[in-house]
Design brief:
mainly alpha, disordered C terminus, two-stranded antiparallel sheet, 7% strand
Amino acid sequence: MRSPFRFRRILAALAVSALLLAAWIGVSILTLPSVAYLAKPGVSMVITVKDWERKDHPFVVGPRNPRWTPYGALPPALKKAVVASEDANFYTHEGVDYEAIREAIKTDLRKGKFVRGGSTITQQVAKNLFLTREKTLIRKVKELVLAKRMDDALSKSRILELYLNVVELGPMVYGIGHAANYYFGKHPSALTVRECVFLASMLPGPKVYNPYRKMDRVMKRSDRILRRMVAARMISREEYDAAMAEVPNLAGLARKVEKTLETPPPEEKPPEEAPGGGPVVIESSPAEPLEPGPGEAPALIRPDADGPSPEASPPVR
């Protein structure tokens, strides 16, 4: 008689645990911050990024960052290279690519470890702006929900603009504006096709694809991306041939990287979190205090009336 009773107790405990887990996930989703303000082209926000010693630093995403590169100033080859390498279905999915997730799960199960994430560009933006990098079920659920909301609220061009201005591309090198200057000494709009693909090839992680220590690995991946682009007719055969013949000029890279790693940025206190989640709102003017609304994250920096607008060209869905 004891065995059935014990079995029922185990089932009851499992049912309660499942309900508690569902409730926890539900509450976590309900308390996610709004993404609506991201649609405003002049809005800036402060997030927390890490240097290569895992120290936190505040980082401005938006026109208030002097290295901010608006969508219209991003080279077409760079946009295409990023889509080809990171998210081939970017312009057709709705923030989440379920087929890519299924393939990632198959690969991870076969390898017995996390190898592929299956994250779209939109999911990566959601993670970079709102979430941590921890690999947990609840963080993944939050990422999926935020990505769906972002795809509903933002144009594809806006999502790509945010992505390329927040992505990590080196030791405390965040955003394409900083990366183009750091590696090639030029503005992103002046990048060649090879240079665009070279930077895109580092996107899985600048520590894994580090041109300073693993140049061959970066070049091989950039070659694969170029072949993918010409096969998909993203670039012409002439552009492909010219890019393959070009060797990226990284003069002084070794000295620059060594100097960066020897004298990393000083550790700074990251922005405080607002009650609704994310950093506290930053006031743009003492005369006009900005109070954070419920669920509104990260910190917002409202643009001045005559401030620059990052949407230099019509959005593309």
